[in-house]
Amino acid sequence: MPAQFNIAVEPARHLLTLTxxxxxxxxxxxxxxxxxxxxxxxxxxxxxxxxxxxxxxxxRIQTREVVDAFTGIVRDPRLRSRRLAFVVNHSLAxxxxxxxxxxxxxxxxxxxxxxxxxxxxxxxxxxxxxxxxRYRHAPASPMSAGHDCTAPNAA
Length: 155
Prior knowledge:
Transcription Regulator spoIIAA, 5 helices
């Protein structure tokens, strides 16, 4: 199967979702890099404040040059995200994908399915209800309606 990728940007959730499948050539990875750079520019989060979900479950075994090119994208400081989740399958390609991020990089995780990956990406998100439950001494302000902090006053 030739290279295929799809990028979805969800500005409201500061999320970039990348789905990759097939066998890539270095030219395909260059096109993917350009598309990722453009997509990151559409996110409203401060630099490195966005989240990235990469679904690589449809990836085939890649050549060394292609793995190096993918590594360059994942490790590019301009594209670095607050959290990075990979969805990988149980094939040999999984071993290649596990080596893409920098060794020891925090906030990177690998999953077998998308729902688990998404749950992990957003587990540290603080909603209004969680803010009030966690900080009962700080009542929710009526002025916070546009900031996802609209829980009832806890005072």
